[in-house]
Amino acid sequence: MKIISPNFEILTPLDPPALLARLERAGRTCYRSENRITTDSAATFVRGLIKNGHHSVLEHESLSVRLICDRGVTHELVRHRLAAYSQESTRYINYSRDPETQGLVLIKPLFFPEGSEKYCLWLKAMEAAEQAYLDLTTAGATAQEARTVLPNSLKTEIVMTANLREWRHILTLRCAPPSHPQMREIMTRIQARFLELLPVIFKTKD
């Protein structure tokens, strides 16, 4: 068994100035104002689109992100419909054959302090789930049969692609206090990175 923290990687090669220029070109089509494009007009124009609620223009650009998180998080994540997903399959991956762990990789729950009673109870349940999984595979169960005992804490990898408008919507929902703590844990990190790379798109307050 191995316990890790969630993580993510942006897969889309990003050239922020070029991205903003493409958005400006698309947006100015609506106003036939392409003649007003200059070398430094894109950021101001796109910022104006967002301020005026003309968010459909943001749908012309998308970002792909690989998330490493637990399966409970992905169960919620894939409910966002305007996106594409490719996820690690428990039907085809036999975790008992992993040469590094020879068992399960789990995501550490941030709300259970390590060493606390709750953490120890969680760890005991994870050990039982792992043992049941290994026993099933030893008894000849296939991966898709043995997965019936896998917990929500199982580490999974999922690649998600969404346009910029949808990412803004997702981050607004999933970084808010009512969101599940583990969802917020990974999404606030993605939001911070997006804000660093594309502040014109992802800055929500002046």
Write the topology of this structure.
Elements: E1 2-4, E2 7-10, H1 16-29, H2 42-51, E3 62-70, H3 71-77, E4 83-87, E5 105-107, H4 117-138, H5 143-146, E6 155-163, H6 164-174, H7 181-197, H8 199-202
Parallel strand pairs: 1-5
Antiparallel strand pairs: 2-3, 3-6, 4-6
Task: Please characterize this protein's 3D structure.
There is one protein chain. The protein is of the alpha+beta class and 206 residues long. It has one domain (1-13, 61-206): 2-Layer Sandwich (Gyrase A, domain 2). The chain has eight helices and six strands. It has a four-stranded antiparallel sheet. The protein has a two-stranded parallel sheet with strand order 1-5. The longest helix has 22 residues, at 117-138.
User: What is the fold named in CATH at topology level?
Assistant: Gyrase A, domain 2
The low-confidence parts are none
Distance between the termini: 46 Å
- General form: elongated
Which percent bin holds the helix content? 40-55%
**Overall number of structural domains:** 1
Please describe the biggest sheet, giving its number of strands, its sense, and whether it closes into a barrel: 4 strands, antiparallel
Strand elements, count: 6
Question: What is the CATH class designation?
Answer: Alpha Beta
Secondary structure category: alpha+beta
Summarize the structure.
It is built from 8 helices and 6 strands, in the order ββααβαββααβααα. It is an alpha+beta fold and 206 residues long. Helix 1 (16-29) crosses helix 2.
